[in-house]
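Listing S7. Sequence submitted for prediction.
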Amino acid sequence: MLRAYVRGSEGKVYPKLIVDTGSAYTIIAYEFLEIIRHYSFGSEIEGMNRSAVIKTGWGLTIAGTRITLYDIMDYLKSGWPPGLVGNWLNLSGKQMSDAMDYIENNRAEVEREYGIVLENTEKIRQYWEERNREHFAMVARLPKTGKEEIRAKLLARKAKRGQE
């Protein structure tokens, strides 16, 4: 239930949400309209034009999900049809069509950011490959545990039982 309003630092006015906790009212003030805009599905809220694609810390994301346009781009560039991508990522037809429209209408921006994401992903992959290479080399240099004979006997017994 909305009861009061608060003015944000940028000058916008946001409703405060008053929650009845039994004997007292607790005021939880947060950017209510922004939360609805980011996490609501379906119809527009109070005439507010809700975008299906939003900018988050992950990049360009489908509103209400953690699915980025870069995830969709990966599948599309691998040759998947959009309908299959939507089914695989559990997106509604509207979400998928909105994402495809956004990609087509903002092709240059999306391609530029997708390129940056691919570069960062490659750097991360190289880092972990190098780090794991050192680790696996160290493990290979470790002395044998002495359990190789026991393991060989176990495998021989299993093979013998399989023949009977």
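Caption to Listing S7: primary sequence and predicted structure tokens for the chain studied. The helical segments are 32-39, 69-77, 82-88, 93-105, 107-141, 148-163. The first helix runs from residue 32 to 39.
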